[in-house]
Amino acid sequence: MSVMAIKETRTDRIFNACNYVILGLFLIAVLYPLLYILSASFSDPQAVLSGRVWLWPVDVNLNGYRAIFEYQSIVRGFLNSLFYAGVGTLVNVTLTLLAAYPLSRRDLFGRNSFMLLFVFTMLFSGGMIPTYLVVHNLGLLNTRWALILPTAMAVWNMIITRTYYQVTIPHELLEAARIDGCDDFRFFTRIVLPLSKPIIAVNALFYAVGHWNQFFNALIYLTDESLFPLQLVLREILVQNSIDPAQLTDAAELLRRQEIRELLKYALIVVASVPPLLAYPFVQKHFVKGVMIGSLKG
Amino acid sequence: MDTLLRRQSTEQGAQGSTPRPPRMGRWAVARRQIKNGWQLYLMLALPVIYILVFQYWPMWGVQIAFRNYNVVDGITGSPWVGFQNFERFIDSYLFWPIIRNTILLQGYELLATFPLPIILALALNYVRLRWFKRSVQMITYAPHFISTVVIVGMLFVLLDPRTGMVNNLFGIFGIEPVDFMGNPDYFRHIYVWSGAWQGLGFSAIIYLAALTSIDPALHEAAIVDGASKLKRMWHIDLPGIAPIAVILLILNIGSILSIGFEKVLLMQNSLNLQTSEVIDTYVYKVGLQSAVPQFSYAAAIGLFRSVVGLVLLVVANQLARRFAKSSLW
Lengths: 298, 329
Description:
heterodimer; A: mainly alpha; MetI-like fold; 0% strand; B: mainly alpha; 71% helix; flat
């Protein structure tokens, strides 16, 4: 601010101190559990179980991570999740752009009716059972499509994207292109798409993280274990606490397995959270912007 | 193409040099727009098909709530039973406990998680050290990207009665280990505060954005008048973000019966069922998980929830428009 010249009063200095203390508390509260799990995943299982790990790893080793790579259903789930996130996001972004651009055009006849058609689904939905029956009737149960098609587009993202187009693509641009004989398809592919990079990045991040973290659809639509995404495997191991020793091919004795069991959980939490956390700093700039564009329309 | 341009120029009142028909009727305009914009409709086709198949088809299928659905007769062939399924739910001995659990859980969550992001955003707004502000933001956003399954997994690991960190800490102070996840008394607190931990930073983004849109002249005037930072926060920043806060509150009230279902399902076990059974988990159990799925009964409960949610949203919106002068629509 441009008011640095005015000297801070005593109350303001106290205010500043309190402010930093509050933020510091927030910071520690969020960071500590994350750091603890990270450290525990690199520590000796004995040290973790007996409570000798507090902040930094004790007796550093990689056994937990080695166990993950030996555990076949985790590796398969990881690959499946990569597939769902990749293909799913591609479908999502395509549909979102295809809906958002025409709906951003003021000269589209029936625009408000189309918007109503989309927005109404945000207020009311058929619910879990009727949706399940539709997926069932379409024969999608136990196929990879069951995790991709029912969530092929999120109306909220479409509205954010539409607002982005309304703000960034001036009507004059369209008129100028038309005078040069450009039709709507060409305008979309040659002019709109190259201008959409930030909004595509935001959408891709939202959707990809959504796919990666999604587990409920897989739970109700899939029964074939070879199709399970990582989150379902995680649920078995972390939440239901069922670890199949037969899956750990090389683990030597039972005692060691017992310890590895706990360590595996810590390492698994880290491995499962890494892909979304890695993606996010890359698009952070666009991402905050995207959330703000969304809030603009409220 | 050029007809469209011409139409626009007439709209603006500019007189073209070419002689034009006096006035185009509404339908003539519409026909031209449709004819010129057929490519736009083609682009819209795929999303519209998606929304019809996966959103409106289930809405049509929700009629099974009023029927006695069986697989052989299908949705339209099964016999009508009127409100029988709804009556069965309302009369069931589980009705009040489930409603109570749902409202208490979401109400508690709303109260606990609503003020925290506002406090964080207000505090961040007065930080001059850029690196500090940046790192607090980066770190507090991070949990938002962790999946629900992993969050619940972390809770199980950290709160484990024998090996968890929290009970290890209790051990140092000589406190008996506590089985947090298996105790119905703790379920709500664990659910709500882990949610607050996860969503805090992300929810603050929207308030930070609102804070940057406050006119700096207001702050400058207040400084000249000798207002302290605390006073400025109270009299300038808080009123500045109030409209957005109200809108978020409306949205939260509208979803009071529906949010966070996946997490409840994951945290649920036979020991804490007494406080953790909510409407959606019950629908899931009755409709999909049980060996004899009761589609109609489950759909009726789901529909009941959707309708109540919609009514709550409308009422909250009316109240906000009346008293806070900001609303969704």
